[in-house]
């Protein structure tokens, strides 16, 4: 049974002021300029019109918490990150395993923690592990800058989740392995406004930011 991790990216709406230095120009795209301590963002799938509600909160120490729920108010995931001088680092992540009859929460344990680097010439990578049904999975996400279009920075994210070697047969390892890519669009002073997930079977799904409630 394949497991698709909703690590998203979440991870990507934030609230901070930007400066005029060269290093922080990327920050002005990743982070929202005008913010309150808590906001509710609505994303809609252009594929099936399903909604996602993102509750984003921040504190004065640069900690940003993003909680996502679906249109039924069911928990999807929670991401905690910290803004630094060089980018943003993942602090913790937890998500719902919903492929079974009774969904349950899983905690992801990060090792390498780079969500994004302000230096666009450098890739950002986060890695870590989680346990599902007694199987330990390794996760890796790599983010690379693709291009700038007017007031939007576009990145490609590559995701992979697979069981640690030695737990399953080679055939079962492939069965449990999950890969997909994501194209993320960050608009200046607004943060994430659109993302497109592309799956190995050729299917894709696009989510766009609809409105903000304060």
Shape: globular
The SSE order reads: EHEEEEEEEEEEHEEE
- The value of Rg in angstroms is 17 Å
Q: Count the strands?
A: 14
| Percent of residues in β-strands | over 45%
Are there runs of 5+ residues with pLDDT below 50, and where?
1-24
Oligomer: single chain
Average of per-residue pLDDT values: 86
- The secondary structure category is mainly beta
- Biggest sheet, in brief? 12 strands, antiparallel, barrel
State the helicity in percent bands: under 10%
Largest sheet, spatial ordering of strands: 3-4-5-6-7-8-9-10-11-12-13-14
How many DSSP H or I helices? 2
Tell me briefly what this model is.
The chain has two helices and 14 strands, in the order E-H-E-E-E-E-E-E-E-E-E-E-H-E-E-E. With 214 residues, it is mainly beta.
Folded structure, characterized:
It is globular and about 50 Å long. The strands form 2 sheets. It has a 12-stranded antiparallel β-barrel. The protein contains 2 helices and 14 strands; from the N terminus they run βαββββββββββαβββ. It is mostly beta strands and 214 residues long. It has helices at residues 27-30, 170-176, and strands at residues 14-15, 31-32, 38-45, 51-58, 63-70, 75-83, 87-97, 104-117, 124-132, 135-149, 152-163, 178-187, 191-198, 204-213.
């Amino acid at each position: 049974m394949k497991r698709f991790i909703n690590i998203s990216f979440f991870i990507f709406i934030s609230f901070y002021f930007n400066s005029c230095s060269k290093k922080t120009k990327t920050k002005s795209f990743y982070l929202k300029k005008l913010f309150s301590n808590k906001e509710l963002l609505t994303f809609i799938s252009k594929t099936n019109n399903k909604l996602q509600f993102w509750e984003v909160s921040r504190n004065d120490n640069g900690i940003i918490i993003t909680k996502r729920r679906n249109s039924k108010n069911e928990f999807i995931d929670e991401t905690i990150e910290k803004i630094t001088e060089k980018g943003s680092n993942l602090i913790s992540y937890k998500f719902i395993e919903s492929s079974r009859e009774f969904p349950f929460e899983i905690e992801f344990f990060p090792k390498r923690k780079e969500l994004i680097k302000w230096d666009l010439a450098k890739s950002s990578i986060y890695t870590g592990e989680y346990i599902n049904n007694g199987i330990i999975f390794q996760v890796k996400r790599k983010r690379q800058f693709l291009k700038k279009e007017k007031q939007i920075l576009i990145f490609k994210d590559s995701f992979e989740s697979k069981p640690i070697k030695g737990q399953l047969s080679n055939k079962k390892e492939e069965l449990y392995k999950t890969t997909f890519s994501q194209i993320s669009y960050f608009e200046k002073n607004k943060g994430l406004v659109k993302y497109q997930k592309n799956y190995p079977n050729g299917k894709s799904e696009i989510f766009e930011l609809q409105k903000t409630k304060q």
